[in-house]
Fold this protein.
Amino acid sequence: MEPEVWDDASDEGSLKTTQTWECPGEVVVTPEGYRVCSVTGEILEESVISDEPERYFKEESKSIPRIGSPLTYTQHDMGIGVSLEPRRPSNPLKRAGNLIRKVKVTRVAKKDVCKVMVLQYANEVASSLELPKSAREDVGFILQRYLAREKVNGDKERRCLVAAVILKVIERYNLDITQNEVLERLDVDQLCVWEAKNKLHEKGVLAEFVKTIYGEGGQERLLGRVETYVAKIVSELKLGDEVRRTAMEFIRATQRNRKNLYGKRPETIAAAAVYLVARLYGYDHVNQDTVARVVKIKGSNVRKLYRYLMDGMVVLVPL
């Protein structure tokens, strides 16, 4: 049976189509938009829309890529901004003129300058703290929402705002980065960060994050944060895994004894519990200052919380 071929040119601009009904093998679509028989190599149809990604080769100087980066909250324009690169003319004077025009094309609008500076700084800090990609996106998302309502004036206010947002994201993703690490990295104090958090709450940009962290299961999330720091201390001091397990059992026992841990920093809770259990297991080199240094807190904080947790508790040591 002869293959059936026709040329559909009844309307202007119509596609030329060639098709056969007998392909002994599989019919495939090439990136160029041809439907081809895999056995005979015969083109069955032309101008087929291909679902393959567009290709761009850097060596093709005349080609301009038409594919942008994925949308991201870490950039002020969500990553959809476009600036076309002018061709390089042979005349050096024209080259200089094109360079000036290129700078003008990439110039940021005046209303976006504040947003660009804050996001750029936040990206640098997030990179230095090695935050995962999803956490960086959340940092950008919160900052984008806040900056759409308010402006940031001055370098200190910018640093405090970024610190407050990063601490919230660290808490959400249960990362083993302490509050003091962030404060030292951004050179801010706890008071200004607290004020920045209040502003974020007033503008309503932390609603979903607060619900995630302090909503249903808030106590379990707190225990998860504590366990993260317990594991960090045990790993840094090279203690046994039994210290980690027993420390968490002790913290759960204090909760059953109606100890209120709300408002207590999870790294401090972890340090106090590890200190107690390590001494019970005979790790004489572990003291309050030792565990405090791992999570970058003061030894006096460990001592105060240790006394609070031990008040009314009885520790039974098997002989």
Observations:
- Residues 176 and 228 are 6 Å apart (CA to CA).
- The chain has three domains: 1-52, 111-214, 218-310.
- The chain has twelve helices and three strands.
- Residues 1-52 form one domain.
